[in-house]
Write a structure and sequence with these properties.
Elements: E1 13-15, E2 20-26, H1 47-57, E3 63-66, H2 69-77, E4 81-82, E5 93-98, E6 101-103, H3 105-112, E7 114-115, E8 118-120, E9 125-129, H4 130-139, E10 150-151, E11 157-159, H5 166-177, H6 185-202, H7 209-230, H8 233-249, H9 252-259, H10 265-290, H11 294-316, H12 327-339, H13 343-368
Parallel strand pairs: 2-3, 2-5, 3-4, 8-10
Antiparallel strand pairs: 1-7, 5-9, 6-11, 8-9
């Protein structure tokens, strides 16, 4: 799915001054003996809950829902209102949303910014006038909505054709919310491909991101313990595999949270804190495997300082220049050092390259920081 902003299509005016008055979710009545599409869970929340949450985050002031009793009851519990037929809607612009549509706030804003009537090319969403919105809401469908003009979705938009389409939709959601623009090379080409099947499996279950954060932490710490106390080549190999597994699994909690609309500051704090403890455990494990001599612990201390300093700069200066020795790279270096039974060399590489990288970024940040010289 495209990530950039959409340009107005042919026949579509530039940005419209009037905001969208309300969104109307056209959720069809459930078929006899079947589940309504709007109440199918995709990545955690139902399609209806996802739509209401995204519309609210996009700044839509009011959400109306059409459908059967089960849909309307769920809509009320989610903070939306039931559409009451029998009278025209007040004048204004309205966003029509199909009950089986999945989309993001960027798509809603891009449609609302177009002047006049406009439809999304990737899913059943349309911005229409009050008369067209009233007719569509009374009918509960897009049957009477004009086909054009069309505008490409700026963010993510698709439709759930049926229960058999869940696999495609889950993959589309991962593609949209899994990888991040800030991913480094190791994360993009190694960790994400490893975490993707795990995330797609977990989105079919009701496991919270916090539990996954704890699981990745425990895997990394288990690898550190096996490396530090194993004492054999095969325990070093096993420990290295576990450390890299924890490295790859570290992205699963974030992917599940973003796909399921469950991201939070609390989860980010938990993830960041446990990551630091896992990093220290891995470095301690390498120091013990190297022999636990004073020189080994000095290198471990230097590597820990680099790891913590890079993380601190990242926290206080999010717009700092690109960091080369990110956490995914550092853990991969540690995992390879353990698997090859070269624990001291792993500490040396992380300590030297990590501190050089941290000092490089710090120097650029401090030169740009305001204040007397």
């Amino acid at each position: 799915m495209t990530r950039g902003s959409a340009e107005p299509g042919p026949g579509v005016a530039q940005r419209h001054a009037d905001p969208v008055a309300a969104a109307i979710v056209l959720a069809a009545d459930p078929p006899p003996g079947g589940r309504p599409g709007a109440l199918v869970r995709v990545g955690g929340p139902t399609v209806l809950a996802r739509a209401i949450s995204v519309l609210g985050s996009a700044g839509v002031p009011r959400v109306l829902v059409t459908g059967g009793p089960a849909v309307l009851d769920a809509a009320r519990r989610l903070g939306a209102s039931a559409y009451v037929p029998g009278g025209p809607l007040p004048a204004g612009r309205y966003l029509l949303v199909a009950g089986d549509a999945l989309f993001d706030a960027e798509t809603v804003r891009s449609l609302a910014d177009h002047g006049g009537d406009v439809r999304c090319t990737d899913a059943a969403l349309a911005v229409v006038d009050a008369a067209t919105a009233t007719a569509a809401a009374d009918a509960g469908s897009f049957a009477g909505v004009p086909e054009g003009p069309l505008a490409p979705a700026a963010g993510f938009a698709t439709t759930l054709a049926g229960p058999g389409d869940l696999r495609r939709v889950r993959r589309a959601l991962w593609q949209r919310y899994g990888p991040k623009p800030t991913d480094g090379l190791v994360c993009r080409y190694l960790n994400r491909p490893l975490s993707r099947p795990v995330t797609l499996l977990l989105t079919r279950m009701r496991i919270g991101p916090d539990a996954l954060t704890l699981a990745s932490f425990l895997v990394a710490v288990a690898g550190a313990a096996v490396v530090g106390f194993g004492g054999r080549w095969w325990t070093m190999l096993l420990g290295g595999v576990l450390i890299q597994a924890g490295n790859a699994l570290d992205g699963v909690d974030g992917e599940v949270a973003r796909i399921g609309l469950r991201s939070s500051r609390r989860g980010a704090l938990l993830d960041t804190t446990l990551d630091r403890y896992a990093d220290l455990a891995v470095l301690a494990g390498l120091a013990l495997a190297a022999g636990g001599r004073p020189a080994d612990w000095i290198w471990a201390f230097a590597a820990a300082a680099a790891s913590l300093l890079i993380s601190y700069i990242n926290a206080v200066a999010p717009r700092a220049p690109q960091r080369l020795l990110r956490r995914d790279v550092r853990l991969l270096v540690c995992a390879l050092a353990a698997a090859l039974s070269l624990p001291l060399w792993g500490l040396v590489v992380v300590a030297v390259l990590g501190n050089l990288d941290a000092l490089r970024v710090f120097g650029q940040v401090i030169r740009r920081a305001p204040g007397p010289r």
